[in-house]
Amino acid sequence: MNVVATSHSLPPAEPEWVHEGSFHILEQLSKPVHRNLEPVGPHYLAHARRKRHHRTFSEDDRIVAAQQAKNVEDADSGEISEPEDPLLLQRDPKDWKNQDHYAVLGLSKYRWKATDEQIKKAHRRKVLKHHPDKKAAAGGVDDDNFFKCIQKAMEILTDPIKRRQYDSVDESADIDPPSRKSKANIYKLWNPVFDSEARFSKKKPVPRFGDDKSTKVEVEEFYNFWYNFDSWRTFEYLDEDVPDDNENRDQKRHVERKNKAARAKRKTEDTARLRKAVDDALAMDVRLQKFRKEERLQKDAKKIAREAEEKRLADEAKKKAEDEAKRKEEEETALKASKADAKKAKEAAKNAAKKNKRVLRKGAEDANYFHGEGSAPSDVITNVLADVELLITKLDNEELDSLAKRLAGLKVGEEIKAVLVDGVHSIVSKGSSKDGDFKVLK
Amino acid sequence: MSDTEEPQQKTVIGISYGNSNSSIAFTGPDGKAEVFANEEGDRQIPSVLSYVGDEEYHGAQAKSHLVRNPKTTIAYFRDFLGKSFADIDPTNAHASAHPIQHDSGVAFSVEEKAESGLSTLTVSEITTRHLRRLQESAADFMGKPIDGCVITVPTDFSESQRKLLVEASKAGGLEVLQIINEPVAALLAYAAREETSHPADKTILVVDIGGTRTDAAVVASRGGMYTLLATQHDYELGGRQFDDALIDHFSKEFIKKHKTDPRSNERSLAKLRLECENTKKTLSLSTSSQISVESLADGIDFSSSVNRLRFDMLTKKSVDQIVALVESVVKKAELDLMDINEVILAGGSSHTPKIASRINQIFPASTVVQAPSTMPTALNPAELCARGAAIQASLIAEFEAEDIEQSTHPAVTVTPHLAKSLGVVIAAPEGDAGKAEDKVYVFLESETAVPARRTATFVGSKTGGDILIKIVEAKRESVDVTPPKEEKVNGVDDEDEDDDDDDDEEDIKIFKRVTEVERVLAEALLKDVKKGAKIEVMLNVAGDLTLTLTARVVGSQGGVRGTIPGSAL
Ligand SMILES: Nc1ncnc2c1ncn2[C@@H]1O[C@H](COP(=O)(O)OP(=O)(O)OP(=O)(O)O)[C@@H](O)[C@H]1O
Ligand SMILES: [Mg+2]
């Protein structure tokens, strides 16, 4: 067996390569193409020998196999045939300048779009049909006029320069622009016109007229392109024949000059013609109005949005100010209220304290100044009252209140004295007074 | 008796049968094919028969009668075989006997013998007579009767045309072993030169530029088997267009001097045509050529000369068309010009240097263009078909008719071909993982008929360890490898460089075709390969597209094997 020694090496396996076993299938081979092997040469004969031993050769096999094979021979495409116009067949080949070369070859519907391949095929078709030797053999008149037309058409259409000159003046390929008053769909009206004009463009690709979905940029680009159209269209084909005998030099020069002038004039006219078409298209182009309207709407929308925003901002600021004022007011009222409350409480406390003080003083009086029977001497009264007064000043409101409550309902002098002495003890123990400050209540 | 011990070897020949010329060839005992000359010394024998007086003339003699006896001279008839009258183009037969309509298709009406009245000769009959004359020449040369032949025809010859050709040959007593396609015969003529039993896979373009037509074919050659990928024909392009260019050129010269157009008189035109063809052939070898025609028109002798430069200018349009046809057929095969490994120029007109050089120009330098002016070792393009036919004839000389019939049966010829190239991913070369390098080593090219297998070895790695074999379908891509423009450093480095040259190379881009992975089909792990160990890989694709990989380390037991099951066909 033949082994090819290559100088390549195989890549190392990445450490991450982990699959069951050492052979991992991902996909199958692409579907094969069935083709005919040429039954020629030693290698084929070896192949046939091998294959024949596994196959039978029924007629069916043959048909199936033959159908499977991809045929490489070109089938003549039928798309380049059209009925022949009897008037065309009677054309005088000398009048070739006015001949429709595409129609002669049966390519009327292709014209400038016909490929070289199509032209060749179409020409062949016509030659097979119209060769004068065939007509003569069939006993017909020896008329090769149409054949000459065919050859002329071929000569012109296969020569790139001549074909361009002919295509330049091929009016059958022109599509006339619609009138400005046309009411039909403008895209249907104008696209074919510009598609046809596009053939003359030196620059490719050529922007199309487009449709109602074209963007503003596309439409602008379209008009820019077409207002600056760079055309290869030339008008040599319409030249008047230049006499080519040497005698008539002056005449020759004269005709040449005339031709040159005529070409220039036609070129100018053509440029103007196209410009007018673009003008018309522009005038009829509803998209431009649409874009303008859209733009206006957009501008308006922007304005409304801006005003709305301003209003929103103003409203916001106003609300904020109001909220702030309200909050302040509330705060003030709350403050006032709390101040009044405090005053009231203070008053109440003051009143309570007054009352309690009175209770304490009354208690000492009710206990007859702790003197027992009979009216107490004035110095006793003075001492007791001094003690009670001292106690009152030292007690805070709460202590005062609790002492007053304990005194409530007491009639017995000793009991009253005990309560008062408790009060004295509590202030002495708090350290706000000393034992010695009191003369009686101890 | 000794002749019972060794069976008598059959004497078989190859015939190329063209509208303009035919050739006969045989394969010698050394296996080399050779085209031989007829009695008149011609290797390209004009396919012409002429009836003058009581004689039938053939070949070059008959062709010369085109001047004096065009009405009884039959030429350019091959393509008429099996066609209806409506389907033929009689242009080329205009200056000879005109074809006429006949029940069988096309015929000629000529007076075969003096004063015997017109007889109708069908194209089949003319073919029979032509082949009989070739057979006689061959038998004469070989010194023994001819037992059989292989004949070449264009690829667009229909089945019924082929059948008629076999019948016509048989009618003249010459058995046809096989009819084969011209481009494949041309290829076989070159393939037979290579002394290997394992021819390299190539994609070949065969351009056959004859006298009245030009045929192009893209052929895949895989493992020595051939498959047509695309064909294209131009029936209005051939040597005659080159003759016409010279005819027009000299006619204009003649008109200038003598005020009469030699083209307007049939006889003058016929004379001029013959001489222009000779002048043209001379221009293929030398850079200028003479022409002289006695009594060209109005009894005036004409002589002049033309150089190759002028000739190239006059024929530029035809050469452009040939180049366009070449580009078009490659496109039709869905290939890039860079995918064509070899171009074989066949047919007599391929001697023309300008045709070869223009075709050479459109292909990359790596593409071999086999033509006399581009390749000194090229075979004679006019002889390729006959040689190929002779080689095929010698291969099947001893086959039974039944064997041949079965071997050429569609059940055998129609074969699944790989849609994509198959190969394995290779490691990037040391220190260069560049774009312009092949990523895949291709074992089996696309368009390989299956079953098929190939084996290759790969060099070991420097480090050793596990190796991954990725089986992939590959594609080829063009990579721009134009070297970056060298900056001129004070003009010192480039002193001897010509400025004009620089300008010429301004926008020449150099592209390289490299293989890329298109689809990974499977991966195989080859474990613990010692460093530097060589690896042998075999890919085998069965008829049902089952792929089997076998890989082993050369000189050891280690290996891996795996199978991708075939898809239903
Ligand atoms: N040396 C040469 N240089 C240029 N042209 C040549 C040369 N030799 C032969 N030819 C031309 O080659 C043409 C014949 O080619 P070939 O022998 O391949 O013909 P063919 O296959 O019979 O042609 P077809 O079938 O296309 O008519 C003629 O036009 C002839 O003038
Ligand atoms: Mg040929």
How far apart, in Å, are the first and last alpha carbons of chain B? 56 Å
Helix proportion range of chain A = 55-70%
Tally of DSSP helical segments of chain A: 15
Fraction of residues in H or I helices of chain B: 25-40%
Number of structural units classed as domains of chain B: 4
Write a brief caption for the model:
Chain B: Residues 479-505 are annotated as: Disordered. Chain B: One of its GO terms (biological process) is rRNA processing. Chain A has helices spanning 42-52, 59-68, 86-89, 101-105, 116-130, 132-137, 145-157, 160-168, 186-197, 216-227, 249-284, 286-366, 378-394, 397-407, 413-430; strands spanning 3-9, 23-25, 33-36.
Overview of this structure, please?
The complex is a heterodimer of chains A (442) and B (569). By secondary structure, chain A is mainly alpha-helical. Among the domains of chain A are: 80-172, Helix Hairpins (Orthogonal Bundle); 174-282, no CATH class; 352-437, Ribosome-associated complex head domain (Helicase, Ruva Protein, domain 3, Orthogonal Bundle). Chain A has helices spanning 42-52, 59-68, 86-89, 101-105, 116-130, 132-137, 145-157, 160-168, 186-197, 216-227, 249-284, 286-366, 378-394, 397-407, 413-430, and strands at residues 3-9, 23-25, 33-36. The longest helix of chain A is centred in the last third of the chain and has 81 residues, at 286-366. Chain A is elongated and about 185 Å long. The termini of chain A are far apart. In chain B, strands 1, 2, 3, 4, 11 and 12 form a six-stranded mixed β-sheet that branches. Chain B contains 13 helices and 28 strands. In chain B, 28% of the residues lie in helices and 33% in strands. The model of chain B is unreliable at 1-5 and 491-505 (pLDDT under 50). In chain B, helix 2 (123-142) crosses helix 3, helix 4 (182-191) crosses helix 10 and helix 8 (316-332) crosses helix 9 (353-362). With 569 residues, chain B is of the alpha+beta class. Chain B has four domains: 12-174 and 387-412, ATPase, nucleotide binding domain (Nucleotidyltransferase, domain 5); 195-237 and 315-381, Nucleotidyltransferase, domain 5 (2-Layer Sandwich), CATH 3.30.420; 239-313, Actin, Chain A, domain 4 (Alpha-Beta Complex); 417-482 and 509-568, Sandwich (Substrate Binding Domain Of DNAk, Chain A, domain 1), CATH 2.60.34. Classes of the chains: A mainly alpha (442), B alpha+beta (569). At the A-B interface, strand 1, strand 2, strand 3, helix 1 and helix 2 of A face strand 8, strand 12, helix 4, strand 15 and helix 8 of B. Strand 1 (3-9) of chain A pairs parallel with strand 23 of chain B, so a sheet runs across the interface. Bound molecules: adenosine-5'-triphosphate and magnesium ion (MG). Magnesium ion binds next to loops of chain B. Chain B: Residues 479-491 have a biased composition (Basic and acidic residues). Chain B: It holds the Pfam family HSP70. Chain B: Residues 479-505 are annotated as: Disordered.
